[in-house]
């Protein structure tokens, strides 16, 4: 089973999982589930905050010269704990889930809105569990203290 999950992680990197969910949202869109300008404003705000979180987190990782590749968490050179990482251990994935939810709202995909927790579950099982295991091995007590202090999502 572990070998299968490892292959699945490679075949389904987080950005691809997001794209697949967005495509499903588009196919299940029912415009009558939107509320005009209200939907547009809420979707735009959620997408803006989510994108800002993703970009800020990527910038933090670059600044600390550590890997952004979730398939190689063992190559991390620094445990980043500031900025968005001070309140979420997975701000990029949190931002991606926000983008998925914002798009679902925008296109009127009730199934997409209801599937937002499924997106979180898929990313958690395929990527986060593995990444956190690698970080625990790599950073030891430093990771354990961080993990106890900061929640996985919010």
UniProtKB/TrEMBL annotation:
Compartments reported by the entry: Endomembrane system
Family annotation (Gene3D superfamilies): 1.20.120.1630
Enzyme class of the recorded protein, top EC level: transferase
Pfam family, one: PEMT
Listed EC numbers: 2.1.1.100, 2.1.1.334
Keywords from the named record: Membrane, Methyltransferase, Transferase, Transmembrane, Transmembrane helix
InterPro entries the record matches: Phopholipid_MeTrfase
GO BP terms: methylation
Protein name: Isoprenylcysteine carboxylmethyltransferase family protein
Species in which this protein is naturally found: Citrobacter portucalensis
